[in-house]
Design a protein that fits this description.
By secondary structure, the protein is of the alpha+beta class. The protein has a single domain (about 5-150), classed as RutC-like (60s Ribosomal Protein L30, Chain: A), CATH 3.30.1330. It has helices at about 5-10, 60-80, 105-120, and strands at about 25-30, 35-40, 85-100, 130-135, 145-150. β1 and β2 (about 35-40) form a beta hairpin. α2 runs parallel beside α3 (about 105-120). This is RidA family protein.
Amino acid sequence: MTIEQRLAELGIVLPHAAAPAANYVPTVLHGGLLHISGQIPFDTEGQLIRGRIGDTMTMKEGEAAARRCAVGLLAQMQTALGSLDKVLRVVKLGVFVNSTAEFTDHPKVANGASDLMVAVFGDAGRHARSAVGVAALPLGVAVEVDAIVAVHAG
């Protein structure tokens, strides 16, 4: 089964990869690793998912926002590589959670992104990860996720 077939089985439709909002590129391929800039969450209608976990959003809503960030990562991979079948392994995710100082379940929020990578890529989707709380994120979004992915050469 191809990764594209797996996405269809999971009911995931990839959006167009988001264009950079400032002076950076969305991806850099170097030495067999694809570095993907932080992706912010858009819902299926293309609207930003804004809020602060522990204040205006629940942990479960944050987890869903992290999953939407992961969908954005997949879209960036597809655009950069031409096919998700070129992904050898998801190496690392960095998950930034817009949360109150009292909120401490950042890893549970991050699972929204991690679980999707495993669902799509199987064991190759298992990765190292950082999950940290931050005071604010661009445009007031709830979560931002970046990634490093090992890819087939050529």
